[in-house]
Amino acid sequence: MRSFAALRYSVILRLIFRMVIVRCDLATELRWLEGGTITSPKGFKAGATYSGIRTYSEGKLDLGMARSDNECTVAGSFTTSKVRSSSVTLDQNRVLSGRAQAIVVNSGIANACVGDQGMKDAIDMAEAAAISLDLDPDLVLPASTGLIGVELPMALIRNGVKNIAMTYEGGHDLARAILTTDKRSKEVAVSFQVEDKTYVLGGIAKGSGMIHPNMATMLGFLATDAGVDSGFLQDALTYAVNRSFNMITVDGDTSTNDTVIILANGAAGGEQISNGTAGSESFREALLQVCVYLAKEIARDGEGATKLIQVDVEGAKNENDARIAAKAVASSTLVKSAVHGGDPNWGRIIAALGYSGAELDEDLIDLYINEVKIMEDGKPIPFFKESVEVAMSGESVAIRLDLKLESGAATAWGCDLSEEYVTFNSAYTT
């Protein structure tokens, strides 16, 4: 019988092997850029300032903008909530045109549940940014995040946009300006090759609490220097969002302000990418991986979180069933609590799978926790409880379920539930 130390070593080796393989597979298609952000693609500037919307502290930013040097095609994905920010409603309408050039965003106030004033302020905010950037106001998309039921301080915003210095390195400041309860910025960029052209796709996001499909309390802004047909851009974004931001959960709450926007300016040249062209699949994969990275960072940064949870479901009847099952397990309060305590209580995982609504055959299910096999063909198998506890002691916990029905597969991400989450949210506005 192998020793506990040998088991621990074996678990670690398997995890490393899987990570290396995944990384190598991605590297054949994408190059992850060090220090990448929304301004990594050619022709994009950004900047941010402290305007006074939020309580001042050193280094705090609360208002920012991003713009392209030239007009872009645009696509967006927005909250499914029937109670939504006026900024979301305005952007949904403007994105339908397929064209945009800039984004202006504030943190601290959501511009939601304030009546007709909300739409007036969203339009005013876009116009103020347009004047500062010398653009057509219809090409500016406003976004907000923060407290619900408070009107935007438009005097502060009008003055603030005048003080924003727009630079090709300003993406990092913009990534900080959109944060609310987040502990850290979330930003990334990748490059990919299409024939003789190299393109860059970068993005930033915020989100920490009120995170639950569909989408979350999040903002995500993406940019690429590839030229992309607006219809294909929307299809590619929808595909990516459904497999990234729509697959994360922190606390079971969704938001009034969820917004993901992508701008494509074509500054790198080359043939416009559209469905069926040489670069379509490379672009689709690059966008998916950027969105997955940002989604995982949101889950990892969940309020009070100490561990990232990844739930992989394979062998489902179809992809939709796999998504339903993965989200149910990642969303389970009991699973989150067990992960927080490092308790390999696999019954909670199976219970969540059972009520998910996905088609199952109990006698076929295999379950792994950090690649330690816990269940085979619906029955528990002997394992060292201590080995699983060690495997769960790190910053991430991987749960894998093989339903052995068909080929459907999906991944969801969440985080553990800690005492800090309850403490923080019991006094959010005080």
Q: What descriptors fit this protein?
A:
about 425 residues; nine-stranded mixed sheet; alpha+beta; disordered N terminus; single chain; disordered C terminus
Explain what this protein looks like in three dimensions.
α6 (230-242) links the parallel β8 (219-224) and β9 (259-264). Residues 1-28, 209-213 and 423-428 have low confidence and may be disordered. The chain is globular and about 70 Å long. It has 12 helices and 15 strands. It has helices spanning 4-27, 86-95, 116-133, 154-162, 171-177, 230-242, 280-300, 319-331, 333-341, 346-355, 385-391, 419-425, and strands at residues 31-32, 44-49, 63-78, 99-109, 140-147, 186-194, 197-206, 219-224, 259-264, 308-316, 366-369, 372-376, 379-380, 396-402, 408-415.
